[in-house]
Amino acid sequence: PADLGRHCAVLAEQRPDHRAYVLGPVSSQPQLWAFLRHGTAGWSVYATAPFEGWAPGVRPVPWPAPVPPGATPAPSAGATVEVAGSGGCLPLRREPAGAAAGCLPEGGVATVDGGPVQVSLTRWWRLAGLGWAPEPYLRPR
Questions:
Q1: Cβ pair 126, 115 in contact under 8 A
Q2: Dihedral sign, CA of 116, 118, 119, 123?
């Protein structure tokens, strides 16, 4: 098919300076939320989150907590990060999107020592001595 390997973005909700999109392969269910903010340089992504489906008859947008001005919304090498939004324990992987390597509890803290690595629509960061974790659940401290 002509759409094989192609992705699309659908605007789910718009606020004055913010937009929420769902992203995924063409002709398939969305896989990721992307949250954009309008600033002096134009529109930019400030957060992502896994798409977990629509509730029947309802399409709520899981807006992330506001990022304070000047704060870095994404992890970086050497940064200390905290697990947030995992629902209890964030599964860690031996390789990005690979086999399980353990779990880091909600609120758990780790140091980023590698990444990012992009797999499909998710960015992965290596946590020192623990394994790889998906960016949407890591918050810089």
A1: yes
A2: positive
> Other CB atoms closer than 10 Å to residue 34's CB: what's the count?
19
Residue 62 in contact with residue 30, Cβ under 8 Å?
A: no
The reported pTM is 0.53
Question: Which residues are registered as beta bridge partners of 37?
Answer: 18, 44
The pair of three-digit structure tokens given for residue 39, joined into one six-digit string: 């600033």
Fill in the amino acid letter for 54. W
Q: Environment class of residue 140 by beta-carbon count within 10 Å: exposed (0-12), middle (13-18) or buried (19+)?
A: middle
Q: Are 113 and 67 in contact (CB under 8 A)?
A: no
For 41-73, b where at least 16 C-beta lie within 10 A, e where not — what string?
Answer: eeeeebbbbebeeeeeeeeebeebeebeeeeeb
Nearest residue to 12 via CA among 41, 49, 42: 49
**What pLDDT, in 10s, does the model give residues 106-126?**
999 999 999 888 887 678 899
